[in-house]
Design goal:
Order of helices and strands: EHEHEHEEHEHEEHHEHHHEEEEHEHHE
Number of strands: 15
Oligomer: single chain
Helix content: 25-40%
Shape: elongated
CATH topology of the largest domain: Spore Coat Polysaccharide Biosynthesis Protein SpsA, Chain A
Number of helices: 13
Distance between the termini: 66 Å
Radius of gyration: 24 Å
Number of domains: 2
Structural class: alpha/beta
CATH architecture of the largest domain: Alpha-Beta Complex
């Protein structure tokens, strides 16, 4: 049912039948308490299979289809889509993405968590600001969970947890109508092909007080580089040169973002949720000690706690790949947060290797055995 709160999920398409079909079907299969309509804008595709597929969906009422008479470019196509229903919020969705579950309602909740929020991005695999599990490149990274399970874990562990970013990215970008009314559409003159237009939009919005968020409780797959293919590197160079003129402070803003890494907590939460699935049958975990983090870690178990004597910090170390964000807890400062993580993992017992290790731990971090000694219990491993 169309209501005042209906969101237009705008999917600009141009050929690429297989990925476009996968994207649209994932949106159709998703669930949301928020009403939304799928608005497909075809920029004069030449693929007859795609054209026939879109017409079939439109005839069945699954999508609203608009077709450009000739190819006008990505940015102009997106602007047209955003102007179709001038009262509605929009969700820009690249045709090479896959969504899961109640993705849209979680993104809308973030958008309305504060009146000054303009745009919202989810976590994604691709090399964007919101990349997971690595902040830079995730090409070729295969996790032990499917995308829909990863999205479920994100919704559970990171529910309502957001991070502010300088800009969001247009692969899956919720935009509030009020912001569009305030600063206008994308800049088709400077960014006609469609790379950098959303970043320019975000910078313009920030200048008048709008904010941008990445949500920790949504994961969306992006088949990176499908949208622009081999042209991407050239488009990046053009974008950087244009930004140097339009937004001369962008290098400083980007450097601060890289240094502070506000998304680390979101990635760490998802790492912990994945780890919980791996250690769920295990009620006990070993505590190993090292002089410093550069030294060798003696770990026969797939998951151990490691206490660094030099830095008075403890961290979970996982033998499996792709858990790069697990938090390092400074002791005794982070004892409450550490206890929360241990209890979340379902661990009831922390086992030291020797009485000497237990005594050292007690001297080095007085708060730790007192707090952890209640639940879970801190014990010494029995000699075999």
């Amino acid at each position: 049912m169309v209501t005042a709160n209906t969101v237009d999920v705008i999917v600009p398409v141009w050929n690429q039948f297989d990925v476009t079909k996968q994207c649209i079907e994932s949106v159709i299969a998703s669930v949301s308490r928020n009403d939304f309509e799928i608005v497909v804008v075809d920029d004069a595709s030449s693929d007859p299979a795609l054209v026939a597929y879109l017409r079939t969906l439109a005839k069945a009422g699954a999508i609203r289809l608009f077709t450009n008479k000739f190819n006008i470019g990505f940015t102009a196509t997106v602007n047209f889509g955003m102007g179709i229903d001038p009262e509605r919020d929009v969700l820009l969705l690249n045709s090479d993405t896959v969504v899961n579950g109640a993705w849209l309602e979680r993104m809308r909740a973030a958008a309305y968590s504060d009146r000054q929020v303009a745009t919202v991005n989810p976590l994604t695999n691709a090399s964007h600001r919101s990349g997971y599990p690595y902040r830079h490149s995730n090409r070729g990274v295969a996790l032990e969970v499917s995308d829909n399970v990863l999205d479920e874990l994100a919704a559970e562990r990171n529910a309502g947890i957001y991070a502010e970013v300088p800009t969001t990215v247009g692969f899956c970008m919720y935009i509030k109508r009020q912001c569009l009314n305030d600063i206008g559409l994308f800049d088709v003159d400077h960014f006609p092909v469609g790379y950098g237009e959303e970043s320019d939009f975000c910078y313009r919005a920030r200048k008048v007080g709008w904010r941008h968020l990445v949500v920790g409780d949504v994961f969306v797959r992006h088949l990176d580089s499908q949208s622009f293919g081999k042209r991407k590197r050239k488009l990046v160079r053009h974008m950087v040169s244009k930004f140097a003129v339009l937004h001369p402070n962008s290098p400083q803003v980007d450097e601060r973002f890289r240094r502070l890494d506000p998304l680390h907590a979101l990635r760490a939460g998802l790492d912990l949720a994945r780890l919980r699935r791996l250690v769920e049958p295990c009620k006990a975990i070993r505590m190993n000690m090292v002089e410093n983090w550069n030294g060798p870690i003696d770990a026969n178990d797939p998951t151990v706690l490691v206490y660094c004597l030099q830095e008075h910090s403890v961290q979970l170390v996982v033998a499996k790949e792709h858990f790069p964000n697990l938090q390092q807890y400074k002791m005794p400062r982070d004892i409450i947060e550490f206890n929360g993580a241990i209890r979340y993992l379902g661990i009831e017992k922390i086992v030291c290797r020797s009485e000497s290790d237990l005594a050292t731990l007690d001297r080095r971090v007085m708060a730790m055995p007192i707090e952890v000694g209640l639940e879970p219990r801190l014990e010494v491993a029995q000699a075999s």
